[in-house]
Write a structure and sequence with these properties.
Helix content is 49%, strand content 2%. With 189 residues, the protein is mainly α. The chain has a two-stranded antiparallel ribbon with strand order 1-2. Helix 2 crosses helix 3.
């Protein structure tokens, strides 16, 4: 089955029709090329926080994450210390997972140590060719490129970013276009 017709008459990837929050995210953000250090760092963090949870949980807490993590300005988060970790662990408006909070801080520090801009680094893993999935069952969880991205990021000191999380990041930021055939967002190719 290709894209599914939503109650609003719009044909989307099936997950985009499951809740109004998902429809808005699907229609306006997912798969749209995204650039910028803070923007990509935010997505790195949110994809990491999503690990093991439903994406809608993260979507609904996104503004709280932005507030808690200083609008995802890596230089500001890199300065977070033990008191900040404890503050975040007490903040019920975000996901309170110590390992994920520490990873967000570690990753901000890793960005500061990069020898190339984060934008350039992440986008270097975008595949030259990508086949449009016909159905959601055709969408991979990992790819050779996401494995390579995860390996490279780990080597550079990043944490909590395995191949599955990296592929989700690639999808979310438009490095790959996994809108299924028939979805109104699918680019003609």
């Amino acid at each position: 089955m290709t894209g599914l017709l939503g109650e609003d008459g719009v044909t989307r990837c099936s997950w985009g029709n499951s809740a109004p929050d998902y429809a808005a995210y699907h229609d306006q953000e997912w798969g749209t090329p995204l650039h910028g250090e803070a923007e990509l760092y935010e997505r790195l963090c949110l994809e990491s926080f999503q690990s093991g949870l439903s994406w809608i949980t993260i979507l609904r807490k996104r503004e709280n994450f932005r507030k808690a993590f200083k609008k995802f300005q890596p230089a500001k988060v890199a300065r977070f210390g033990d008191a900040d970790v404890e503050r975040l662990m007490q903040d019920a408006s975000i996901v309170r997972n110590r390992a994920k909070i520490l990873a967000a801080i570690t990753n901000a520090r890793a960005i500061a140590a990069l020898d190339t801009p984060l934008d350039e680094l992440l986008w270097s893993f975008a595949p030259a060719k990508h086949r449009r999935p016909k159905t959601m069952a055709d969408v991979p969880a990992i790819t050779d490129e996401s494995k390579a991205m995860a390996k490279d990021l780990k080597k550079r000191g990043f944490a909590f970013l395995g191949p599955t999380t990296c592929y989700a990041l690639m999808q979310a930021t438009g490095m790959v276009d996994d809108h299924v055939a028939g979805c109104f967002r699918a680019k003609r190719s």
